[in-house]
Amino acid sequence: MTILVTGSLGHLGEALMRTLRQAGREAVGLDVVAGPFTDVVGSIADRACVARCLAGARAVLHVATLHKPHVATHGREEFVETNVLGTLILLEEASRAGVESFVMTSTTSAFGDALKPPPGAPAAWIDEGVAPVPKNIYGVTKTAAEDLCRLFRRNEGLACVILRTSRFFPEEDDDPDVRAAFADANLKANEFLYRRVAIEDVVEAHLLALNRAPSIGFGRYIVSATTPFRREDAARLRADAVAVVRERVAGWEDEYAQRGWRMAPSIDRVYDGALARRELGWRPKWDFAAIVKRLRETGDIRGPLAKVIGEKGYHPERFGGQPYPVGGE
């Protein structure tokens, strides 16, 4: 079965291409930029290019997108062209080509303002029942693309699964205050408690979704490391996250102390991936406890796949010495 992977030069696209090829599976990489995992240089908004790539394909892993860090450097029309029109063209041509499984990578950023509870309120518990409230063109175009997938399942019978992934990118945080407050690896380790996932587990979720899509028909899932927290922890997480982490996870404090790391004093949201675990059979290996164990054994929170891919960045330049032209969410 030939699998089309869009955005094959990106972090997740490369991870998928590497994994598929190592498993001996036939995969075609499509990206606007040439690279070792790009078989076809072209845009998902180019219908003729997409149709050629889908000739003989039976599955699509649709990863290509403009991301949140591009909001300040790309126009809204560019977001619509790539994230909405590109997805529409892929869906139309996939339907014509008889594709059996269509998996789209979306984002927990699509929840937007639903992720930010007001001062004094408990942490937001984010599962598939929470309605997105997009706050920028990135969120708007990703939720629109998700709705297109649902429409094509309803009207064309195309099996579509959407994976709303939490953070897996290795780049620095986009908030300058956060970058100043935490060492980068410290911050990322903390995030495995509530808003981060290992690239190896993201790849596994996509491959499971590819296999399960025909039987699911349409599904939308949060993909994030298994949290140790419970819903009843939400109020205390906002007020005293350190105390909650001490109760729920053992063995991290000495490791943090040796490195001069610290735990986040407050946590404002928790991503719950229970539905993906239940319906996709997804078993993420890398939760916070596993990351601390890896840190203890190797001195690094990254796995082999993350190390070999490295950082790709979102822009070729820096902005006044900073990695992003704007900061924060």
Radius of gyration of CA atoms, rounded to a whole number: 19 Å
What is the annotated CATH architecture? 3-Layer(aba) Sandwich
Contiguous runs where pLDDT drops below 50 for at least 5 residues: none
Shape: globular
CATH superfamily: NAD(P)-binding Rossmann-like Domain
The total of beta strands comes to 9
Summarize model confidence as the mean pLDDT: 95
Distance between the termini: 40 Å
> What's the level 1 CATH class?
Alpha Beta
Amount of helix: 40-55%
Q: How would you sum up the major sheet? A: 7 strands, parallel
The total of helices stands at 12
SSE series:
EHEEHEHEEHEHHHEHHEHHH
Strand content: 5-15%
Main sheet strand line-up: 3-2-1-4-5-7-8
Topology diagram in text:
Layout: E1 2-6, H1 11-22, E2 27-31, E3 40-41, H2 47-54, E4 57-62, H3 76-97, E5 101-107, E6 124-126, H4 137-156, E7 160-165, H5 176-181, H6 184-191, H7 199-216, E8 218-223, H8 234-248, H9 253-259, E9 269-271, H10 274-279, H11 288-298, H12 304-309
Parallel strand pairs: 1-2, 1-4, 2-3, 4-5, 5-7, 6-9, 7-8
Helix pairs in contact: 1-7, 2-3, 3-4
